[in-house]
Amino acid sequence: MKGAVRAHWGSRMAFVLAAAGSAIGLGNIWKFPYVAGVNGGGLFVLIYIFCILLVGIPVFIAELYIGQQGQKNVVESFEVLDKKRTVWSFPGYLGLVSAFFILSFYSVVGGWVLDFEYRSLMFQFSGMNHKDVGEILNSLFSNPLRQTFWHFCFVLLSGSVVWAGVSKGLERFNKVLMPSLLVILLGLLGYSFTLPGFSKALDFLFFPHATDISASSILEAVGHSFFTLSLGMGAILTYGSYLSKKESLSRVAFTVAFLDTTIALIAGMIIFSIVFSFDLEPAAGPGLIFATLPSLFVQLPGGSILSILFFLLVTFAALTSAVSILEVVVAFWTERFNTSRHKTTLVVALVVFLFGLPSVFSTNIMSDVKMFGLTFFDLFDKLTSSYFLPIGGLLISLFYGWKLGPKAIEKTFGGPIKFWSTGLLWLTRVVAPLAIFLVLYNMAVGF
Ligand code: TRP
Q1: Which option is the CATH number for 12-445: 1.20.1300.10, 1.20.1740.10, 3.40.630.30, 3.40.50.300?
Q2: Ligand 1 site: residues with CB under 6 angstroms?
Q3: pLDDT at 54 (0 to 100)
């Protein structure tokens, strides 16, 4: 696959699904509930939704546009649009670094999901109570070999999709799997409605309580809105580059943001219903969904089958996201250095696997090794979500709003639509960059 011919999506629909596939992943089902839980619920959720609207959607449009008009990878699209090699390729390089950091912990969690899928298939959850379920998670955490194995499997699976090329299997995959995930989530939501903890869950998630929200919670909300929409490191940019220059973009961003937020909120409602029904701890951290969901499955008639289906779909959601991160690196490398897709994918996947090992060991043999008080798993997560992605998004927003300016925005909407384009212009020029800057500044220095 050497040479200059770039792949393109088969249809507009295929592109929307791929972008949604990238956005909807562990961020929605695993990360959102646990981060919302740790940060006290309601107020955090509200801030997160504001961030999606005022920062996420504008940056989403900017990234898509840069990729679509540049028709190149995460670094070279900036160079094309700026007509030279400039400082503006910096967000591109930052994105490449972020890709490895994110995949490091992402594929480890993907491995946990695979492990739970395997246990569901073996009917290991049958007859357990929620205490036993919690123990399963702990035994996985303390087993470095088992985690390494599943982490390896996850990297292998996502690597093989990228190896085959984006447009081939993935388009068809997404078309069936993303709607199935939504259906099964809605089904589970129906079940959780019957649980005693349901109304408490709603209250926890949707009513801003007078919890003292700190600067770091706000930073986490900003960071999570980037993470969940796959923004700030060029994944959406790269997918945009496989779209023909003529397609209009504005509606795609809204559709994806809407789907992504809806799925996160549904996952949150299900999980907190279980938490409050069984007196579990809402602030349990990264293990939250693994300790709670099986508790529901063991109770339900046909729960084992549901559990198999559920973890399978989460696996696919995670894979379609991981693939979009890998693709950023592979697209850059093959185009910049004219290497073959196959060889490049192999090398990148190997590096990702090795880079993930510190995250695997963070819950066992290296749990005492800390930098800035964080294990490697937490460090990679925090560094990317809270710093690299927002900084990348800030620069992308400025590039689009100021460097490319009103002409680009007009092109984005396919004509001069006064209200929306003026809105978007100032969102990308001032509102989004300022919001990100203030949050980062406040974290670093304090007001
Ligand atoms: N958005 C995905 C999720 O919610 C993860 C993801 C895919 C991502 N591509 C990304 C996160 C790019 C940050 C940047 O699971």
Answers
A1: 1.20.1740.10
A2: 22-23, 25-28, 102, 227-228, 230, 233, 235, 321, 324-325, 389
A3: 94
